[in-house]
What we know:
heterodimer; A: three-stranded antiparallel beta sheet; B: Butyryl-CoA Dehydrogenase, subunit A, domain 3; two-stranded antiparallel ribbon; 7 helices; about 10% strand; elongated
Amino acid sequence: MAHPSLIACHECDLLQHPAPVPPRGAAKCARCNALLYRVPGERGIENAFAVLIAALILFVVANIYPILSMELQGQRVDATILGGVRELNQGGMPAIAAIVFLTGFLFPLANLLGMLAVLLPFVRRRRPRYLATLLRGVMMVRPWSMIEVFMLGVFVSMVKLAHLAHVVPGLAMAAFVLLIVLLASAATVIDPQYLWSRWESLE
Amino acid sequence: MTPAAPTAASLGLLSCHICGLVSRAPAERGAQCPRCGAHLHLRRPGSVQRTWALLVASAILFVPANLLPIMTTTSFLGTQSDTIMSGVIFLWTSGSWPLAVIVFVASIMVPLLKILALGYLLVTVQRHSAWRPDERTRLYRVIELVGRWSMLDVFVVTLLVALVRFSSLAIMEPRGGALAFAGVVILTMFAAMSFDPRLIWDPVEKRDG
């Protein structure tokens, strides 16, 4: 016995009929003001799909090209995320290498790919068997995807190294900044709670 | 605030922690959500105990995370060990005080306040406090939002080591403090996730009838 039209606030358990939410609006809990879900604009899911494909391309660029380069006596050292992970691993810190690999590379990638795979059925209005597991997986991975924190780390590193050598931002830096802006703009559309609320509209 | 607002639990309804679907609580335990198949619980099972355990572990780890060096730099000037705090002081004295403030807040203030705030929420929940539930929920929301930013210094160490390790001017190596610090961030994130904010509101329900 399920009640898809009712919603219980995940923060205070208040049972409510959410009032109709305009496009680009958000439903909030009547008692504790928690964000229940966000509603995308017109053709929001199709737009989000396009944004995610762009984000995926940027993610590839951000990981192939160096984020920072250091020049010293004609010698040039480039840093990428995966290169940093390799250095940490060889430097006797496999546990930290694993944490950086997961939060700076694997989980962000899984979040992007997972979201694309989740949105495709919503575009086609189908409900494949794997959809629930996939959406659940994306929700689990998301808090551990930390590219914006990583980006702040890049700025701090630049300042810390400035007294040692000449440090220049690489192409990946621009890709990362764009990627973070894109994901922030798509965040309203790729709210998993909204997708769950649309579950019954799929065949 | 509306008094005596019905919660799902008070009407014998369960909401799925994954997909949010509200359904009638079945008589037997171990029921599954009819929409997404997740196991249904009235409240997160063992929420208070689990959060306490993770919180105590992260509080213990917070000590070596701040006392042990996170990185050593060996150059022609000798060997220098850096803790989280000495990194902040370096940024401050080298003139980049906005970054010094950011790193200080993300690496020292946030983990510390997070541990204290979660401890406070747990104590009030255990005492069935009905005092300002909306403020305490807001506190929980902030804790969940800012926790991830503490990972900042782990990424900084990674980038410094990656850039400097092979150069002729210095050798930078990660040290145990960095691992302890990453442990604090991960444990406090798990602690915040295992806390069930609906426990804050359950005593309110009882008080208002």
